[in-house]
């Protein structure tokens, strides 16, 4: 069976046999991009931050006037992922590398049939003599691929110097290194305090090394082993035990907390967000600052790359919606009843907020008998007169 991915790669590779020149930025330097992130992802703090961002992003639901496309994005964007996994991986790559590429697979008619996030190790942009842009990807295992710019959905942040991708995550490396060094200092301190506990001093002169070793071993066996005695020790006048107190210097809690806050600020999260203890107001702010901008960018870029300009002019679109009502407390959700009987929400819309299934007739808007549109109220008043 013919692999559609390989077929597309071969087709694009043939198209890139034209004369290519490396894309040059405004400064005139050749640009070669190498993604950063593999080391940072080994940090438990970085992984916790990115996991939270990815989890919240993955809650978004794709919406499109093309029902088939919407179903594909929701259920199975590609052979390896469902809709949630797709958004999770896209956001993870976006945070790790500040740039994420998504390959759009198409059928013979140009319709999108799948989307694959590209976990590349590095990438370079090229332009042929006709102005067409291609991106050359290198994977970790050594394979290389070429894809046309119009087949790539590209999301970027810290977008400054390059035309192709965002800047790397080098600004946070120093803080991560300080955190790692601090953790190692604590680990070494624990080890050092468990090593040398004291010195046995004998008044006997010129002891044979074997006798010195024997005295130490007997003392350790009799008094230092927690399973061998009652906690009391006895020494004769020829032996003296001097306890050694080791107090290694380690990073203070205040400094460690500031290191953590630096990472939190970089990724736009905090402890309450990570631990799920944030208030609805705090979650709303988090959504507006860290989730909504990403979904807006993804919606715009996906619409632009999936549809032609003509299709867009006829109203075709893709958007990702994540309802902010998910951050409301249960009491606030129940209080929405006040807007249901005023016609602001249907019963089924309210039930959806409560994570309840729709009911028959629940899409009809209802209104309390003591409320009416202004025009109707004037008519009723005239009739009463």
TrEMBL record:
What InterPro entries does the entry give?
A: Phage/GTA_portal
Kindly give the Pfam families that the UniProt entry links to this protein: Phage_portal
**Per its record, how is this protein called by name?**
Phage portal protein
Q: Which organism is it from?
A: Hornefia porci
């Amino acid at each position: 069976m013919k692999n559609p991915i390989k077929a597309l790669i071969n087709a694009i590779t043939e198209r890139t046999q034209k004369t290519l020149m490396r894309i040059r930025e405004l400064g005139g330097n050749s640009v070669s991009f190498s993604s950063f992130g593999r080391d940072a992802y080994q940090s438990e703090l970085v992984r916790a931050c990115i996991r939270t961002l990815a989890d919240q992003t993955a809650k978004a639901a794709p919406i499109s006037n093309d029902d088939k496309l919407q179903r594909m994005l929701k259920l199975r964007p590609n052979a390896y992922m469902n809709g949630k996994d797709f958004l999770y991986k896209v956001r993870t790559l976006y945070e790790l590398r500040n740039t994420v590429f998504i390959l759009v697979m198409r059928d013979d008619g140009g319709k999108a049939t799948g989307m694959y996030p590209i976990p590349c190790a590095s990438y370079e942009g090229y332009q042929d003599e006709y102005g067409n842009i291609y991106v050359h990807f290198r994977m970790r295992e050594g394979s290389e691929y070429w894809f046309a710019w119009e087949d790539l959905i590209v999301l970027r942040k810290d977008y400054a110097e390059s035309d192709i991708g965002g800047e790397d995550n080098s600004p946070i490396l120093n803080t991560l290194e300080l955190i790692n060094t601090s953790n190692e200092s604590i680990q070494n301190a624990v080890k050092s305090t468990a090593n040398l506990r004291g010195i046995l001093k004998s008044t006997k002169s010129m002891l044979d090394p074997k006798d010195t070793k024997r005295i130490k071993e007997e003392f350790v066996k009799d008094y230092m082993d927690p399973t061998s005695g009652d906690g009391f020790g006895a020494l004769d006048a020829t032996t003296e035990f001097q306890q050694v107190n080791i107090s290694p210097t380690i990073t203070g809690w205040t400094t460690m907390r500031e290191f953590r806050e630096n990472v939190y600020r970089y990724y736009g999260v905090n402890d309450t967000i990570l631990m799920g203890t944030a208030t609805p107001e705090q979650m709303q702010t988090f959504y507006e600052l860290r989730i909504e901008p990403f979904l807006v960018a993804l919606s715009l870029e996906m619409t632009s790359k999936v549809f032609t300009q003509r299709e867009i002019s006829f109203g075709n679109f893709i958007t990702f919606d994540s309802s902010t009502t998910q951050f409301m407390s249960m009491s606030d959700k129940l209080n929405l009843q006040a807007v249901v009987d005023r016609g602001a929400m249907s019963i089924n819309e309210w039930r959806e907020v409560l994570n309840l299934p729709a009911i028959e007739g629940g899409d009809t808007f209802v209104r309390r008998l003591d409320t009416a549109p202004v025009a109707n109220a004037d008519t009723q008043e005239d009739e009463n007169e």
